[in-house]
Amino acid sequence: MPTTDPSTPSLLAWFHDETVWGLSLSSITLALAATLGVYLGITLLLGLAQRRSRRIAEARAASGRHGAGRVAAVVSEVLGGTSHLLILLAALLVGVGMLDLAPRWQARVGQLWFIALALQVALWGTRAIGIAIRRYEERHLGTPSLQVSASGTLMSWGLRTLLWATIVLAMLANLGVNITAFVASLGVGGIAIALAVQNVLGDLFASLAIAVDKPFEVGDFIVVGSVAGTVQQIGVKTTRIRSLGGEQIVMSNTDLLKQTINNYRYLQERRIVFNFTLSYATTAPQAEAVSQAVRRIIESHDKVRFDRAHLKGFGVNALEYEVVYIVLDPGYNAYMDVQQSINLAIMRELESVGVQFGVPVRTVHMVPPTRGEGPAAGAISQEAFP
Q1: How big is the chain by its Cα radius of gyration, in Å?
Q2: Are 272 and 324 a contacting pair, CB within 8 Å?
Q3: Angle 146-174/180-196 helices, nearest 10 degrees?
Q4: How far is CA 85 from the centre of its chain?
Q5: C-alpha triplet 55, 59, 62: angle, nearest 5°
Q6: Which residues pair with 243 in a beta bridge?
Q7: Dist. CA 37–CA 167, nearest whole Å
Q8: Residues 40, 128, 130, 142: what is their CA dihedral angle, to the nearest 10 degrees?
Q9: What CA dihedral angle connects 302, 304, 305 and 310, to 10 degrees?
Q10: How close are the terminal C-alpha atoms of the chain, in Å?
């Protein structure tokens, strides 16, 4: 006949009847097993989701669908910000929820659930903000710069502060703290601080506007009022410009954005308008030939597009010509070289056809005195002639 161990029923009974802090060992063991299972399950699912997102991002990038690939890459990076400590806390809360606890402890477990979830959302949000700032810098500037470090730090700090402030207030409200008075106090204090440092805050927001709207960037040549130079640094409060004279000009960001800014970075070609005059001794055929000669001179230059050359009108002292052409090179030195070459060619052309530039000339006619008047008496008439 088979024999049975008489100690087995007693051991199971002891394991079921023995209590710790009012809880049986069997229920505690079941809770621990559930905690371990939930922790391993969440960890495995998290790793699987990260790997899956990474593979999707790589596949979309290889197929040219960069939009979907970027979304999958962001999801993978955000999931990488999951805290294993919070996963363990969630697993413990699942195990504790299986125990027969008093109602007040069950309420505390519910609050801990909210705190754990809120903290994890805050960590995911912080990771997402960091990714967004980094992608913004790469998309707009490509390489790090002083402007990126200033504006990026400002935006990152502001967004993270807003996120964590919201999370902390939500957790306090969940714990039963009356946050109405606290929020009101923060609002009054914030208004007082803002009034005290409104000039500094104005420059900070102006720096943020420069970073987002990008009216200019480091390295751009700009003209603001009487200031013309190259942007060297865009800080949180001021912008530094290296002027044509060599000195550094420091301007407040707020004052800078209040003025009209001429940015020559996007200048691709220059439209040039210049005038010259010819003597009134010029004949009509010569005047017509001059316009044709100017057109021929301009069209002979590379990287120059002729627009027009006309006898504009009849001035007080001379015939007035207006010439317009486009320099396809945005460089100022290139424009000056072309203009000098055109001026010299026009001088040679006019010299070859015997036409003179118009200059103000006054001819004075001395009127002899009439009979009976002294030698000093007389009239002088002045007329303007070429």
Answers
A1: 42
A2: yes
A3: 160
A4: 37
A5: 140
A6: 229
A7: 29
A8: 120
A9: -120
A10: 145
Structural contact between residues 185 and 222, judged by C-beta atoms closer than 8 angstroms? no
Return the biggest CA–CA distance within the chain. Answer: 176
Give the list of residues 6+ apart from residue 108 with CB closer than 8 angstroms, or none. Answer: none
Q: Give me the helices (H) in the chain, please.
A: 7-17, 25-62, 66-79, 84-97, 103-140, 146-174, 180-196, 198-213, 253-257, 284-299, 332-353
Pairing of strands 304-314, 221-224: unpaired
**Is residue 229 within 8 Å of residue 194, measured between CB atoms?**
no
Contact between 375 and 350 (Cβ < 8 Å): no
pLDDT tens figures, 201-245: 677 778 778 877 788 888 889 999 889 999 988 877 888 999 988
pLDDT lower than 50: segments of the chain: 1-2, 7-8, 142-144, 146, 376-386
Q: Is 96 buried (19+), middle (13-18) or exposed (0-12) by CB count in 10 A?
A: middle
Q: Which residue has the tokens 């964590």?
A: 164
* Single-letter residue type at 78: V
pTM tops 0.85: no
* Cα–Cα distance for residue pair 169/122, rounded to 1 Å: 12
Q: What is the pLDDT of residues 284-303, one digit of tens each?
A: 999 999 999 999 999 999 88
Contact indicator for 326, 307 with CB cutoff of 8 Å:
yes
Burial label, 22 (beta-carbon count in 10 A; 0-12, 13-18, 19+) = exposed
Say what the pLDDT of residue 193 is. 62
| Element holding 221 (H helix, E strand) | strand 221-224
Give the burial class of 358: count Cβ atoms within 10 A of its Cβ; 0-12 exposed, 13-18 middle, 19 or more buried.
buried
Alpha-carbon distance 159 to 162, whole Å?
A: 5
The residues, any chain, with a CB within 8 Å of residue 313's CB and separated by 6 or more, are: 320
Q: Three-state DSSP class for 12? A: helix
Q: State the DSSP code for 364.
A: E
d(CA 312, CA 334): 27
Cβ-contact 337, 345 below 8 angstroms: no
Three-state DSSP state, 238 = strand
Angle (CA) 29 31 33, round 5°: 70
Contact 340, 274 (CB under 8 A): no
- Distances from the Cα of 192 to the Cα of 64, 181, 202, 203, angstroms: 52, 17, 15, 18
